[in-house]
Amino acid sequence: QKQVVPFQEGNASMKALLGGKGANLAEMTRAGLPVPPGFTITTEACLAFFKVGNRISEDLLEQIAAALKQLEKQKGQTFGDANNPLLVSVRSGSVSSMPGMMDTILNLGLNDLTVQGLAALTNNEKFAYDCYRRLMQMFGNVVLGIEGYHFEQLLHRLKEKEGVVQDQDVTAEGWKGLIEDYKKCILAKTGLAFPQHVYEQLRLAVEAVFKSWNNQRAQIYRKINRIPDEQGTAVNIQSMVFGNMGSSCGTGVVFTRNPSTGENTFFGEYLINAQGEDVVAGIRTPLAIAALKSEMPLIYEQLFAASKQLEKHYKDMQDIEFTVENNKLYLLQTRNGKRNAQAALKIAVDLVHEGLLTKEEAVERIEVSHLDQLLHRGIDEEAVKDVLAKGLPASPGAAVGQLVFDADTAAEWSRAGKTVILARNETTPEDIHGVIASEGVLTSRGGMTSHAAVVARGMGKPCVCGCEEVRIVLDEKRMFAGSRVVEEGDWITLDGASGRVIIGAMPLHEARMTDELLIMLKWADDIRTLKVYANADNPEDAKIARQLGAQGIGLCRTEHMFFSPTRLPVVQRMILADNKEDRLQALSQLLPMQQSDFEGMFEEMDGLPVTIRLLDPPLHEFLPNLEDLQKRHTELTYNKDASDLEREEIAHLLRKVQALHEANPMLGQRGCRLGIVYPEIYDMQIEAIFRAASGCIDRGVRVLPEIMIPLVGHANELKILRELVDFVAEQVLGKDKLRDCPYKVGTMIEVPRAALTARQIVAYADFFSFGTNDLTQMTYGYSRDDAEGKFLTHYVDQKLLPHNPFQVLDTEGVGQLIDLAVNAGRLVKPSLKTGICGEHGGDKESIFFCHLTGLDYVSCSPYRIPLARIAAAQAFI
Ligand code: ADP
Ligand code: MG
Ligand code: MG
């Protein structure tokens, strides 16, 4: 089986086999672009390697050797030859882009002999030994697992000795000495000498890249980006080109458009006389690409032309690595550039206008999970007084948090419920858990393409980087800026859009819709058939929902209206009433309150349906906690100063709460069960709804109430309650007005039995709304409150379940119930309206399922509406 593919034989469509990097190197080679020749070891080879217990087969070794021979011929150099050595890079390349997550080794093929050859050949000793020490550093770190700082320390000492600041100012003699130090370090740490045999170097490096697929940071990255573990990585072996050979050399990264605003401007950074990751590592602060135009005008023109060519070819913004060796340009990588949500939208809209993409392609391309960050908040400028420093605006958005200086503390504090900002001199892939835990990231070094910037943009987190005015002293847990000192735990605010670091916790304002988002949403609306409703419990939320494009309210939870401080006492009086009369009295006080809530909702949603769910939770949720009461009761019993009246009151309350206490309230007296046993509660709510409707109709508002009965499991439950709704509606509205109020009655399908008996239930229902939170809970038999954070996390970690089913709809199980109920219901009643209103309504995969199942709508929280509109369109495409 062929497990090695030369660049000239591959192409971009072979991503699964060659990895993204390999496939694109092949594609660029085919397009005639200047790519150093090389070959790719396939992902299949990687999987085979894992399968036999992390061992490279003889067959693969032979294939590699053969490809290498071919490469030697192409280059006119020989691997391991003392006079004319071929040097290669060994680069990881996964199928889905995972920038910086896995390992790459450069300058492989150098040893004590070949380094002399290289020096003689290039007439540049300093350069040759610089390459050699870099190889030892990368090899020591990636292959032998020696922590980077051991090498850094030795390097630092050398520079101090030579009295230089920059790596490129170290002398050839300096490098030679360092190489001896590195050799000792490697021997001391591993008990083995640095391998002089170049084929052994190669074999070990390939193995290490394969294994890096399973390193911790790669695993975490895959998990948060939902990349399957089974993909494996390809390995690219590529002949080296050198950006570190002197002042007519350099290396850099360009984006064909600005990745943080989306503007169609050439964007990037480079360093003269540097190699590989020098630019992204943030060791030296790089120059903006515009400077290349004056420094190397010809190279700049070539680079610009190649970039445009690639962008057209891939129909997307590209992120390109290049190196200049003695005034000759080479391209080392291209990929679709990471960008934040706003840039993604702008680029997609622009590409449609430029005629490169269709609207469908543009909509399809939007990463819906990234839309979240667009709908995030910005800083309230009025409040900004104290700007500590300004860095590069690497990833927009505002973040407020307490300052921490290392990733572990960030993770720890965030687990303890704090919001944190991670500040580092620069971040490395080892810091990723800290970045995940933080609201935003600040670095004092590194450019717009530094690790921190790339990772933060990918996660949609605000980031300010290269903020050289601040100096972080890790040991003291302090940050200095001029004469100012900021301590760990101090509050700061980052503005990733302007690069400002602001002292204190600034108030933030709500998100705004950009023009590009509005255009994209309009296109999505033209495409999609699935409607998007909102879950909204009050008029303010309804208003926001409508602004964001809601086509109705899919779930208004009436109990949320009961929790305000003025209402709760009345609700409690209603619950605690000893007789019906007292209960009715309390209810009559609640009625106008509910009525005004509903009026507000109807007015905001004028002309659109409003689905109101009658009271759902168990009553004790409105009462004081049982244990607290028992404590207070005991206290009062032994408190001599307490009056008899007080004691009697608390005893009464305690008895009531005890009486209402349930062993398993989620399965107890709640939902329609409550409404049937205490009809006066639902009666009041229904009356409030129709009185509100009546008032609104008088004011010319078009009302479309949809009354939803929760937790129905048997058709008779709905039958009784539907009769109640119809009765009250007619009582309140009278025959005439009823005609102006085309209301619906339906049920939530959230008990498995309801789904199974949909055929019976539909007789009394105008709509079914799948309450997928409860339906998931009851189908799996998982108590949500007990599952999340406990066994469920374990299950997902162990890959026993593909996802948390409370986040991503379990289409296989719960989905079957939905499908069954929709089909059974429609068979009896073709006009039946169907939708879902659980948390899943805002999840992309779940929305896809809803579309495929033929539901009429999904209902989600207001801020997820734009996301749902796009996802619904994507589902159609
Ligand atoms: P990553 O996936 O982390 O970007 P890469 O494989 O792209 O890792 O390589 C890391 C760095 O080394 C990049 O800057 C790349 O351009 C550089 N590099 C890789 N191969 C070569 C090569 N053959 N010649 C010169 N530089 C190279
Ligand atoms: Mg790398
Ligand atoms: Mg790269």
Q: How would you characterize this protein structure?
A:
- InterPro entries: ATP_grasp_subdomain_1, PEP-util_enz_mobile_dom, PEP_util_AS, PEP_util_C, PEP_util_CS, Phosphohistidine_dom_sf, PPDK_AMP/ATP-bd, Pyruvate_phosphate_dikinase.
- The chain is an alpha/beta fold and 877 residues long.
- It has five domains: 44-58 and 67-239, Dna Ligase, domain 1 (2-Layer Sandwich); 250-336, D-amino Acid Aminotransferase, Chain A, domain 1; 376-509, 3-Layer(bba) Sandwich (Glucose Oxidase, domain 1), CATH 3.50.30.10; 528-618 and 671-876, TIM Barrel, CATH 3.20.20; 624-661, no CATH class.
- The protein contains 35 helices and 33 strands.
- The protein has an eight-stranded mixed beta sheet with strand order 14-24-23-16-17-18-19-15.
- Strand 29, helix 27 (715-738) and strand 30 form a beta-alpha-beta unit.
- Helix 6 runs antiparallel to helix 7 (172-190), helix 13 crosses helix 19 (515-527) and helix 34 (844-853) crosses helix 35.
- The chain is elongated.
- The model has no long low-confidence stretch (mean pLDDT 92).
- Bound molecules: adenosine-5'-diphosphate and magnesium ion (2 copies).
Attribute tags:
binds magnesium ion, alpha/beta, binds adenosine-5'-diphosphate, 5 domains, 33 strands, 8-stranded mixed sheet, 35 helices, D-amino Acid Aminotransferase, Chain A, domain 1, Glucose Oxidase, domain 1, Dna Ligase, domain 1, 47% helix, 877 residues, magnesium, 8-stranded parallel barrel
Query: What is the 3D form?
Result: elongated
Q: How far from one another are the termini?
A: 37 Å
Pick out the low-confidence regions: none
Radius of gyration: 33 Å
CATH architecture of the largest domain: Alpha-Beta Barrel
Strand content: 15-25%
Q: Count the beta strands.
A: 33
> Which ions, cofactors or small ligands are bound in this entry?
adenosine-5'-diphosphate, magnesium ion
Average pLDDT score:
92
CATH class of the largest domain: Alpha Beta
In which order are the strands of the major sheet placed? 14-24-23-16-17-18-19-15
Question: How much helical structure, as a percent, in the residues?
Answer: 40-55%
Largest sheet: 8 strands, mixed
CATH superfamily of the largest domain: Phosphoenolpyruvate-binding domains
Number of helices: 35
Kindly report the CATH topology of the largest domain.
TIM Barrel
- Helix/strand/pairing class, anyone? alpha/beta
- How many distinct folded domains? 5
